[in-house]
UniProtKB/TrEMBL annotation:
PANTHER family: DUF1985 DOMAIN-CONTAINING PROTEIN
Alphabetical list of Pfam families matching this protein: DUF1985
Signal sequence, start to end: 1-19
UniProt-listed InterPro entries: DUF1985
Keyword set, alphabetical order: Signal
Annotated ranges, domain DUF1985: 98-161
Source domain of life: Eukaryota
The protein's name in its UniProt record: (rape) hypothetical protein
Length: 161
């Protein structure tokens, strides 16, 4: 799993070092419309100086507690198995992908223009990289019917507003 992550990030970083092939930030009419304007995203190298310290912080604070064990037993437990030293690029890479996002109909797939080429990142790739369960629900699974609270019905909001 981590070799796939390393090669995927390496490929995207290599493409980012080449820069976008789009002259003067002009939109590429062969691709779908972008979510953000073409002159509103970084066009050169990624700033890779970020720290993935939040997972380490949560691990240190909640170590040996039942709350941490609850997190480890959930679908997010695999996040604590990621090698944090190899992940500092991830936040900037994800920001770069999102800032170049293309508008498509599939809500479960991210299409982005990276170095002038379309790039697909879907649930399957996300599951492969993170190890989180991103496949189909088990047979007989019924998702909970959570209803959102309306802000207008909340007493505190009524008092504040």
């Amino acid at each position: 799993m981590f070799s796939f992550l390393s090669s995927y990030i390496f490929t995207l970083l290599w493409l980012s070092l080449l820069g976008d092939n789009e002259p003067d930030n002009e939109p590429d009419n062969r691709l779908p419309q972008r979510l953000f304007a073409t002159d509103r995203f970084p066009i050169r190298r990624l700033n890779i100086y970020s720290k993935p310290d939040m997972l380490a912080f949560v691990h240190d604070v909640l170590r040996s507690t039942s709350e941490f064990q609850t997190i480890r037993d959930s679908c997010f437990g695999k996040l604590f198995d990621l090698p944090a030293r190899q992940c500092p690029v991830s936040c900037k890479l994800i920001h770069s992908l999102l800032s170049r996002q293309l508008i498509i109909d599939d809500p479960h797939t991210l299409w982005t223009a990276f170095s002038g080429q379309p790039l697909r990142f879907g649930l399957q790739e996300f599951g492969t990289i993170t190890g989180l369960p991103c496949g189909a629900f088990p047979v007989g699974h019924l998702p909970p019917k959570n209803r959102r609270n309306q802000a207008s019905k909340d007493k505190i909001w009524k008092k504040l507003i």
